[in-house]
Design brief:
Blueprint (H helix, E strand, L loop, with lengths): L2 E2 L5 E2 L1 H27 L6 H8 L3 H4 L6 H25 L4 H18 L1 H8 L10 H23 L9 H22 L8 H4 L2 H12 L9
Antiparallel strand pairs: 1-2
Helix pairs in contact: 1-2, 4-5, 4-6, 4-7, 5-6, 5-8, 5-10
Length: 221
Amino acid sequence: MQIAHGNGTVLSPQQRRERNRREMVDNILEASRAIMREEGVAALNLNEVARRVGLRTPSLYVYFPGKAAIYDAVYLLAVRLSCEGMKRAFAEHNDVWERFRAALETNMAFALEHPELYQIAFERSVPGFVPTEQTMQAAAEAFDELTAIVRLHLERSEFSPGVPFEVVYNLMIAMMHGLTTLHAANEPHLPVGSGRYGSLIPAAVSLFKASWGTEQPQTSR
């Protein structure tokens, strides 16, 4: 027996089961993320997850073998969404310093909008949690793709730091996550670009530009 999908496509029983499974997996992840936002990333409780998605707790194991597997899936989702946002930030600007500013703002916005994702991806918020080798490989591929894009943009711009790219990139990451972490920890209720640390983004860009910009100050004759 075949059943029509909402868009008119006829689904076989196997396709329908696969669709239902994907929907339940999405529901479990969304419920898990909601609990992490409300109670803290390390406070994930399978009984509460099951209650929110309308399952008995043992039935969760049909979809995830345990709590670590849920954390694993959330971690990979966090990495991919973060990298996609950063790539868009770089693609929307032509000037290297505008790209850097956009990257700082995008990272901070991601942490404020999705604190549970930011914490599991960039902070050690869950004691004992280590992503699986397969997930780490997928995450590394996402980070490598982003790094390659950043390298390409820097090489094409008027940007002359005189130091290896890895040093520039790592220092930018340290500045980006430092400002984000301080803002999220102290003033998460304030929007990006405001507050004690959020308002430092323009100054951070100016520091890098003063050190590595190619524009030379004019001297009087």
